[in-house]
Design goal:
Blueprint (H helix, E strand, L loop, with lengths): L1 H79 L6 H84 L2 H11 L7 E5 L2 E2 L8 H9 L4 E2 L6 E4 L10
Parallel strand pairs: 1-4
Antiparallel strand pairs: 1-2, 3-4
Helix pairs in contact: 1-2
Length: 242
C-alpha cells in the first residue's frame, strides 16, 4: 500500500494545485467587473459634474435675458415719461421705472453670483476630468494586467492538466477511481496523514484498530469520521513524481 499511497498523494498534489489555479482563474472576471464598475461610477460622477456646470450656465443665460428685458423696460418707460400729461399717470410710470430698476439690480447681483458659481463649477469639472482620465488609464492598465494573468493561468492549467492526466493514466485504474469518487465535488485533500492519533483532515481522534490496519498496509483505510483515506507519514516520506 505504500506505493498506492505515494501514487494518490502525487495525483492529489497535482489536483490541489489545479484547484488553486482554477480558483485564481475564476476570480479574475469578478476583479475585472469590479474595475469596470469603478470606471462607470467615475464616468457618471464626471457626467454629473458636467450637467451641474451646464445647468448653471443655462441659469446665467436666462438671468441675462431677463436683465436685458428689464433694461429695455427702463429705457422704454423713461422715454414715455415726456408724453404723459396726467400727474397720476406720471407717478405711476415712475413707480414702474423704479420697480424695473430694482428688479434689474437684483438680477445683476444674481448674475454675478452665478458667474462665480459657473467659474467654480468649471474649475471643478476640469480638475475632475483630468483626474478621471489619469484614473481610467490606470484602471485600463489593471484590466490589461488581469487579462494577461488570465491568459497565463489558462496556459498553466492546460499544461498541468495534461501532466496530471498522463500521471493518472499510468496508475492502477481502480485506485484512481476510488480517489476520484472521494474527491468528487470537493477541492480539499481526500488522502491525509494520521498525526498524534488524529485524522489531519477532520482532526478527530481515530481508533487504535484503524491505526493498526493502516500499519499492516493490506488495503487503503478511511477515517471513521470524515471517510478520507488515511496513511502514516512514514509510509509516504516523499510523493513520487513523474
Amino acid at each position: 500500500m505504500q506505493e498506492a499511497v505515494k501514487q494518490l498523494l502525487s495525483l492529489q498534489e497535482r489536483d490541489l494545485e489545479l484547484d488553486r489555479l482554477q480558483g485564481e482563474l475564476a476570480a479574475i472576471p469578478k476583479e475585472i467587473a469590479a474595475i469596470n464598475k469603478r470606471i462607470e461610477a467615475e464616468r457618471a460622477a464626471l457626467e454629473d459634474s458636467k450637467k451641474e456646470l451646464t445647468q448653471l450656465q443655462m441659469q446665467r443665460k436666462e438671468k441675462e435675458v431677463d436683465l436685458s428685458a428689464k433694461e429695455d423696460a427702463v429705457r422704454k418707460h423713461t422715454a414715455e415719461l415726456n408724453a404723459i400729461k396726467s400727474n397720476d399717470a406720471y407717478r405711476a410710470m415712475l413707480g414702474e421705472i423704479e420697480k424695473a430698476k430694482q428688479e434689474k439690480s437684483t438680477l445683476e447681483d444674481e448674475i454675478l453670483q452665478l458667474m462665480d458659481k459657473v467659474d467654480q463649477s468649471q474649475r471643478a469639472w476640469k480638475e475632475r476630468e483630468t483626474a478621471a482620465k489619469t484614473t481610467e488609464t490606470e484602471r485600463q492598465r489593471q484590466i490589461a494586467d488581469w487579462d494577461s494573468k488570465q491568459k497565463n493561468l489558462e496556459e498553466q492549467i492546460a499544461l498541468k492538466q495534461k501532466s496530471r492526466d498522463e500521471l493518472a493514466a499510468a496508475y492502477t485504474p481502480s485506485l484512481v477511481e476510488t480517489y476520484l469518487r472521494l474527491r468528487q465535488g470537493k477541492q480539499v485533500a481526500v488522502i491525509v496523514p494520521i498525526k498524534a492519533e488524529q485524522c489531519s483532515g477532520c482532526h478527530m481522534k481515530v481508533s487504535h484498530n484503524l491505526i493498526n490496519e493502516v500499519k499492516r498496509g493490506m488495503s487503503l483505510m478511511a477515517c471513521e469520521h470524515c471517510f478520507r483515506l488515511v496513511y502514516l507519514e512514514e509510509d509516504a516520506e516523499k510523493p513520487i513524481t513523474r
